[in-house]
């Protein structure tokens, strides 16, 4: 059986690391939701640009959108606080099998936490998360073509925190990061060769089968196993989270911990590239296709859209970015043919 969408009226205390500042991760509860209708998607494609290549006009627009989102009341499901909490509520501490995340899986007794990392639901969940986040931003600035930038960390020029996130006066800034990993603080080119090899392994030579790339199956009632993640989710996705977070903190907030990662605007840019990798992986060889198992295709999540409506989204409607009218600026891919 597929994972079912959580019940927002049953959202409870999140399983935060011991000693972390208490947070209520739950969204405003709603009894009703509608089903995502892929045919309702706007006909204008949003093309996500590489964060290090954007121009000033774009950055102004992006900053304005995030500023407006941050200014929404904290109980508005579209507010930055609530959007960050989407991530908080959908994670559970897997090292603690008897604790629960904010959501339990519906209809499963004894209760099992819903965890959207470490398994084959990782890519689709995060695709929808960005998709709605982006639609909300677009609505706030009245620009239906607005697209989030992606952090092009798989190229030499993208191997640092993109400069647009490093201005302390900008709404794109987050003070809780590793200070020495801000632009200029590292020597990215020296590491390019090894990073290129890592990309090649995670995307090409080490990801020849679906389960290697996506991670292990997770079905209704399963408790995610922290070792179930796919190649890319583990590295570089996970490593970059920890690299951005503040290493001097016990829980490496913000980016370095699941409960706090969504509080950094860079999170959504990081995940743009993760999402781009799903599209790219499918172009790399004949067996690189999505799962056909209905327990994957019918797994469902809930998100609030730009009109504060709760939407139930199934994995089957997320597979094709073209249908979601989401595209990526085309940039050179230098790791494809790298040989170890
Ligand atoms: Cu939900 Cu980058 O993790």
From TrEMBL:
Keywords of this entry: Copper, Disulfide bond, Metal-binding, Oxidoreductase, Thioether bond
Chain ranges of the Tyrosinase copper-binding domain: 117-134, 264-275
Keyword Metal-binding: yes
Highest taxon of the lineage: Eukaryota
Co-factor: note: Binds 2 copper ions per subunit.
Cross-link 2'-(S-cysteinyl)-histidine (Cys-His), where in sequence: 99-117
Protein's UniProt keywords contain Oxidoreductase: yes
GO terms under biological process: pigment biosynthetic process
Gene Ontology terms, MF aspect: catechol oxidase activity; metal ion binding
SS bonds (residue pairs): 11-26, 25-96
Cofactor annotation: Cu(2+)
UniProt: Cu cation B binding residues: 237, 241, 271
Binding site for Cu cation A: 95, 117, 126
Family: Belongs to the tyrosinase family.
Record protein name field: Tyrosinase copper-binding domain-containing protein
Span within the parent record: 89 to 428 of 580
């Amino acid at each position: 059986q597929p994972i079912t969408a959580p019940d927002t009226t049953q959202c409870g205390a999140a399983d935060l690391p011991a000693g972390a500042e208490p947070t209520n991760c739950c969204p405003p509860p709603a009894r009703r939701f509608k089903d995502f209708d892929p045919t309702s998607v706007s006909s204008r494609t949003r093309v996500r640009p590489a964060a290090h290549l954007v121009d000033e006009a774009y950055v102004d627009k992006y900053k304005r959108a995030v500023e407006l989102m941050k200014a929404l009341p904290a109980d508005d499901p579209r507010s930055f606080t609530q959007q960050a909490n989407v991530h908080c509520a959908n994670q559970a501490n897997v090292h603690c099998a008897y604790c629960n995340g904010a959501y339990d899986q519906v209809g499963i007794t004894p209760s099992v936490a819903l965890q959207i990392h470490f398994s084959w639901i990782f890519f689709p969940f995060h695709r929808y998360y960005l998709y709605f986040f982006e639609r909300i931003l677009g609505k706030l600035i009245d620009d239906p073509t607005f697209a989030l930038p992606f952090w092009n960390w798989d190229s030499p020029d993208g191997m640092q925190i993109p400069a647009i996130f490093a201005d302390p006066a900008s709404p794109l800034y987050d003070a809780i990061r590793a200070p020495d990993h801000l632009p200029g603080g590292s020597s990215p080119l020296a590491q390019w060769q090894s990073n290129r090899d890592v990309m090649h392994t995670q995307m090409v030579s080490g990801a020849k089968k679906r389960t290697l790339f996506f991670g292990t199956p997770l079905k209704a009632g399963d408790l995610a196993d922290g070792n179930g993640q796919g190649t890319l989710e583990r590295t570089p996705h996970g490593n970059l989270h920890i690299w951005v977070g503040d290493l001097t903190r016990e829980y490496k907030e913000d980016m370095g911990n699941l409960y706090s990662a969504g509080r950094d605007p860079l999170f959504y840019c990081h995940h743009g590239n993760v999402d781009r990798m799903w599209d790219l992986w499918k172009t790399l060889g004949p067996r690189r296709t999505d799962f056909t198992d209905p327990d994957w295709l019918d797994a469902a999540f809930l998100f609030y859209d730009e009109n504060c409506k709760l939407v139930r989204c199934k994995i089957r409607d997320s597979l094709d970015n073209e249908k979601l009218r989401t595209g990526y600026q085309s940039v050179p891919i230098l790791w494809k043919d790298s040989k170890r």
